[in-house]
Write a structure and sequence with these properties.
homodimer
């Protein structure tokens, strides 16, 4: 084929390195960062290039924020709640237990003041955080035994990410921080009793269905997970205005693309795993309610001693209130009726 | 401020005119097209410019597809179901009654084969259609009298857009095609009995709450409405590859931005209208079921005589099946529990 004439010759060459928190094998979540890099190249005819490195290639997956802060890499693609050990305020940028679904998260970040609220917080870490990808509502993970009452959580060794581990600690869970690639052997050996990762498509790739029979839902700690593209603040400030626009567009593009891919691939993976014997279980309402109470207790306690957290929590909670009021009306009623009819049709076919 | 150095000097100037189907006063839905124009300019430092024209400025709002097809304008921003009179297959690109919510629509179009399926269909009209904006689940509209049973639909003069009018005709409704700006006087005078437009924010702008007391939900004919950016196919084909990428990015950006704006503004508008006396009503399940049966009857009849429709309908229906199966699990359970707890909290506060 003939090469198209280069239109972007006058544009400066910028070459960045991006450290992903995810392994390449997870083509959706690693792919969300990779999609940003691809779109940036496509919009500049390759004058602005971001080279991706999978977790562990340059720095460990959970050390990418430090690497950007220190200037080791110009940028990273990650989930902000990995850094709640530094400050729980990070969780607002990723997922808060019993927080937002994907639409609500997007509304908060893009038009509801969320990004403005978080900008100063991130500046304190020398970071600019751009929303770049979303997983939607996640699954509750893989359990070796059933969870029937809140008591069944006591002493449970559960691999769980983010702020949710602190919520579950209140109910007696012993949360485990384990990187994606190490979950399978831990669950297989019984070093842990349960593990959550993302949802059907990614969980199947890790093989978790082969080492625990019960697949719980919903992942109430991640009604959606916003993925974040971190840029070193000095690098961001030095970027030509056009390239800032390009990067913003590429990140929003990744949110559309990643969510669509998950929604296409998750149903197929779930069907495969259920056909192969995985047993779907909903968390009992009593368990969810205990977790819900523990979550908001933790938020109130955290807000009382952490002014960063409090500054975001109060408007976040007010926004959540208005979102829930509205989504209960048209969206949820449409969804519920659709799924009711679908369930009826399934029964009639049997 | 100092002007940033122009990086895009080597890029050709392209100037297009875009005919919107919407009035400027509706800043969300007209704004979705305008956002495309703004992003295209931002990503090319103004070398690629799209000038927006509101409905009626160059061509009537419902004539924009013809205008692009004829080459009167290079592009248009619209809702594809306006053109079901040409061929009902257009509806798949906008909204099908009892079809997809926003996430499902995005999944179908972007990663589920939807755009591929529709490409040939649009090429027959000399059009390329890019998804650009979404309204989410719409409301069911404003009624002068309550709707208690399917019988209450008989003889009802209802302003309703798109394919849904044909569904409702089966139940005795007399559907009315009325442009946005003319709905208010028709409903005020009682020329019509009911009218649907979009949702709280846009409906309040048209003043519909002032001329009918009952505000129904959900708008089952629009579980989401995908807005479309139509490009004349010869113009698209002649566009430099870089500008095609720019336009694709700008359109996806508009989907993120528009959905976020609607989700921020709809709750506030709904609260204002309810505080001012509007009465929220859910369509009774019996009514929804009658409409559901009529919709799928119509689809089957249409598929039997229209090969364009049939070619899209069958994979669309199969995709809907997998989406409903998956969304019933994590997403819907998360949403339902969240709204259940929220309703409980509201009651406790009273």
């Amino acid at each position: 084929a003939l090469a198209a004439p280069a239109l972007a010759q006058g544009m400066p060459e910028v070459r960045w390195r991006c450290a992903s928190s995810f392994p390449k094998s997870l083509d959706t979540i690693y792919g969300a960062g990779d999609h940003v890099a691809k779109r940036v190249a496509a919009l500049t005819e390759g004058r602005f290039q971001i080279r991706m490195f999978a977790a562990g290639e340059l720095v460990p997956g959970l050390a990418v924020a430090d690497a950007v802060q220190a200037g080791t890499v110009e940028c990273a693609h990650t989930a902000s709640y990995y850094f709640v050990g530094k400050d729980p305020t990070f969780a607002f940028d990723g997922a808060m237990p019993f927080g937002f679904n994907m639409r609500q998260m997007n509304a908060w970040l893009q038009a509801g003041g969320g990004r403005d609220l978080l900008r100063d917080f991130f500046a304190g870490y020398n970071l600019v955080s751009l929303p770049a990808g979303n997983t939607g509502a996640q699954m509750g993970g893989w359990f070796r035994k059933e969870v029937r009452t809140p008591d069944d959580l006591k002493g449970l060794k559960f691999r769980i990410g983010g702020f949710a581990g602190n919520v579950l600690q209140k109910l007696g869970v012993v949360p485990q921080q384990i990187a994606g690639g190490d979950i399978y052997p831990s669950l297989e050996k019984g070093t842990i009793d349960a593990a959550e990762w993302v949802g059907p498509y990614d969980d199947e790739k890790l093989g978790l269905n082969r080492v625990a029979p019960f697949y719980y839902y919903p992942g109430w700690w991640e009604g959606s997970l916003n993925l974040s593209f971190y840029v070193s603040k000095p690098q961001w400030d030095a970027l030509p205005p056009l390239y800032k626009e390009v990067l913003e567009s590429a990140c929003r593009d990744s949110t559309v693309e990643t969510m669509a891919k998950y929604d296409v691939q998750n149903p197929q993976a779930l069907r495969r795993m259920v056909a192969a014997g995985s047993q779907l279980r909903a968390f009992p309402r009593e368990v969810l309610q205990a977790c819900y109470r523990a979550a908001f207790e933790l938020y109130d306690e955290t807000a009382a001693r952490n002014p960063n957290f409090k500054r975001v929590y109060e408007p976040w909670k007010a926004f959540r209130e208005t979102q829930y009021q509205w989504f209960r009306v048209a969206e949820n009623t449409f969804d519920n009726f659709s799924y009711f009819m679908h369930a009826q049709e399934q029964q009639q076919r049997r």
